[in-house]
Amino acid sequence: MIDLQKAYISQAIYVASNELDKRIRYKQEQAEEAFSSFISAQSQQTNLPDDIDPAQPRIIFQSGPKQIVISQIASQLSLGFDSSEKGVNSQLETVLKNVKEIHRRIEQFKGKESLKENALVITMSLPSTATRTELSEFIFSRFLNMPKFGEIASSSVRVGYLLDSGYFLNIEADVYEKRGGPFKATIGSTLDLMSLPIIEIGISVKIDINSRPKVSEPGFISTGPDEIINLVKNYFPGEIYKLLNLA
Questions:
Q1: Which residues pair with 161 in a beta bridge?
Q2: Per-residue model confidence (pLDDT) at position 215
Q3: For residue 145, what are the domain limits?
Q4: Is residue 35 in some structural domain?
Q5: pLDDT tens, 165-206?
Q6: Residue 39 domain-assigned (yes or no)
Q7: Span 72-104, pLDDT tens digits
Q8: For 63, what's the count of Cα atoms within 13 Å in the CB-facing half-sphere?
Q9: Residue 27: inside a domain, yes or no?
Q10: Domains: count for the chain
């Protein structure tokens, strides 16, 4: 049903939160100094007022599948990938290298003393030739201990763990579809994405490791991404393959 040789990381997101900074939008020049050599794009100012939702983007860098978003309370790096011939392990090395570098630059920009919890979220896509119903049945039979009242039409699962190290580990599994293909666009027309043909279907597994529980500890000081990186290596991709009974 699933060929591990075709598995790939489709997205990786690293977030480093910080103490509220209502004047972050006035620091575009400092952001350019910190991030311009990391991402080949000029920053864009969203010009949002300082007194609205602090989680909304204030400064954005965008270069193809790489994006940096800066808000009053966090800095986020997003990396997107199409199906890759490099293999999951090689992709993971690229992700972790970028995580280390972006965190160093976030410390430079926002100051290490202002940083709070951080998180790394990685989504792995496992393409399949099976149908959505068959993939939903696979997730149901692998993870859920529930009666079958009828044919399984859809299923997904999300489990959170508090690790001994004080970090949260969240794992999600779901069925995904990618749609695409040529279409004719006319002035004033809208495109129904669901009308496009399915070009890829499979199971997606998302792993999220974050330090949120540790922030409440007395004397908490952000230690950067190293511990999260070590934990990711412990669980991804090996333990994910075992969860899916693929290893």
A1: 169
A2: 92
A3: 4-19+73-243
A4: no
A5: 999 999 999 999 998 766 666 666 666 676 788 999 999 999
A6: no
A7: 999 999 999 988 778 999 999 999 999 999 999
A8: 12
A9: no
A10: 1
